[in-house]
Amino acid sequence: MNRLQQRLGGLAPTRLQGIRRGIEKESLRAQPDGKLALTPHPAALGSALTHPHITTDFSESQLELITGVHADVDACLAELTEVHQFTYRVLREACGEEMMWVSSMPCGLPSDETIPLGRYGTSNVGRAKSVYRMGLGHRYGRRMQTISGIHYNWSMPEVSSEDYFALIRNFRRQAFLLLVLFGASPAVCASFVEGRPHALAPIGQYTMHKPHATSLRMGRLGYQSEAQASLFVSYNGLDGYGASLADALTRPYAPYEAIGVRNLGGEYNQLATTLLQIENEFYGTIRPKRVIFPGERPLHALRERGVEYVEVRLMDLDPFEPVGISAQTMRFLDVFLLQCLLRESPPDSREEIVEMKHNQHLVAESGRQPGLTLRRGGQEVLLADWGREILAECRPIAEAMDAALGGGEAHARAVEAAVQSLAQPDTLPSARVLQAMAASHADSFTGFVIERSRQSQLALLDMPWTPEQQARYEAMSADSVQAQRQIEAADTMPFEEYRQQYTSPGRLGLRPVKGDVLLAI
């Protein structure tokens, strides 16, 4: 019996029942013609700084909808749907025909400098959030930051930091399978690559693509950085990971020093001139996470109290689902993450990190190519063969989850659906996107996404909605506005002092200090 089977057999049903998950889902606001909406974040949605469920990501035009933590997949999806329903009602009243763009790759974008940054009020933490986004724009360009996705937060009881890092190592090795199964961004609007070098081919009006791509979002056009390419962050344990991240947060980087913290007019360009401004700037397919205290840096929280959950960051929005993800996909993710946790997880190495990056880029851009091979331990292996091996290990895990949770075979069906999809690449979401573009939209990416966005909007607006739900969300919006005012009224520290204190190396290792509210940036 191998290690995975032994560990699975030793799992008490209560631990499987104790799995928790939550979702953060980003979507651009788009105009009816498929161009980026440049209107402010609607006031009726509350404060983007303090609302528990509705905020913005990089841009003022980029909604981020957040669920709480849930013990049940269906309950998590129901809350995500409810947040969408309220948001769409507000958009209809406040913004007319605006809709949420249902693709991870952005809608028609204006010139880079006119993409609006998120705004969070006059408090120090609100200003810091905007300055951080200004820095991202200077460092990587604003267009790259308009890419949207779904983050899946996941935890299980009685999992140590060491075990979470073992999960992360296996996830990174096997992440190619999720890109194949759920990647849904094989094409982009031509405005996204205008003036940039790329290897995409034109296909329809204002559309670029790769014929076998799965997730261009996770390829070389997506969240990539020459600066961060120099980082070889090990996931062999909390100490090594923390040291790598601390180095990137404190190491001066000449091109960013040339940008400067402030321009000649005194306006802020970025929070710091180090390789990373803050922890969230470190791109990755998965992150170790911990809920932080007010005033605490995320890295400090991890070092002090260990890993509490993982954040999966490579999932594309599914344009065929009204809220971007299905219950079946969520159940597969639960099984996949358990497989990553339970199977043998040897230490990673510099050579393997290079292999994983090669595999990620190759699958993102050519994952449906027949006969595609990936690198594993210095050898070439067929993607299809490796994928089947992973799914074979997922089957008994799915059965164990169904047995522990009761109520049928939902997890087993999710795994079998993945087996079928891997065997029939034409049924994968990325293939279906290209098929739909060709069938009804003259190969136009924008035309396809406009139609899917409008259909999702109508489906969500047609769902039942009670006065009690409306009142509850209106109250949350009002409460968030009041919370922002209280933070602004409580500020006493000059912003420059606040910035220096928050970005100081000492804050990566010191306990929270009293003073101004220092929320997560």
* Overall outline: globular
Helical/strand content category = alpha+beta
User: Which percent bin holds the helix content?
Assistant: 40-55%
Query: C-alpha Rg, in Å?
Result: 22 Å
Poorly predicted spans: 510-519
Q: If helices are DSSP runs of H or I spanning 4 or more residues, what is the number of helices?
A: 19
Quaternary structure type: single chain
Q: Strand percentage, roughly?
A: 5-15%
Q: Main beta sheet, described?
A: 7 strands, antiparallel
Q: What's the β-strand tally?
A: 12
Head-to-tail CA distance between termini: 47 Å
Tell me, rounded to a whole number, the average pLDDT.
Answer: 94
Task: Please explain how this structure is put together.
By secondary structure, the protein is α+β, with helices and mostly antiparallel strands. Helices cover 47% and strands 10% of the residues. It has 19 helices and twelve strands. Strands 1, 2, 3, 4, 5, 9 and 10 form a seven-stranded antiparallel sheet that branches. Strands 6-8-7 form a three-stranded antiparallel sheet. Helix 12 packs across helix 15 (410-423). It is globular.
Strand-helix topology:
Blueprint: H1 3-9, H2 13-17, E1 20-30, E2 54-56, E3 62-66, H3 73-95, E4 99-100, H4 124-140, H5 142-145, E5 150-155, H6 161-182, E6 187-189, H7 190-193, E7 201-202, E8 207-209, H8 226-229, H9 238-250, H10 254-259, E9 286-289, H11 298-305, E10 309-315, H12 327-342, H13 350-366, E11 373-376, E12 379-382, H14 383-405, H15 410-423, H16 429-440, H17 445-462, H18 467-490, H19 495-503
